[in-house]
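Reviewers of the previous submission asked for a worked example of the structure-prediction workflow described in the proposal, so we include one complete record here. The input consisted solely of the amino acid sequence. No template or homolog information was supplied to the procedure at any stage.
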Amino acid sequence: MAKGLTKSQLIRFIAEKMEVTNKQSAAFLELLADTAVKETKKSGEFTLPGIGKLVKAERKARLGRNPQTGETIKIKAKTVVKFRVAKVAKDTIAPPKK
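From that input alone, the workflow returned the following structure tokens.
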């Protein structure tokens, strides 16, 4: 299976398409990433239109099982980040079968 774009390849691709320098393209990607992290942390979600949404979710404390010993253990409550793919992107990449 083919590998995706590396960060430097993505920077060059954006620079060519937008007719800007690689430095400006890299700055844009850094700004986008920083904004996504800050907004998700502050408001609980960040949407990239047409791609998807970063969502902050709370997991409750629960009981789990150690797979090696079978012993029951307590798992603490924690905050996790989930990414929900937009329907448009999902249907374009993997169209539903009819």
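Residues 1-42 form one domain. We consider this example representative of the routine output the project will generate in years two and three.
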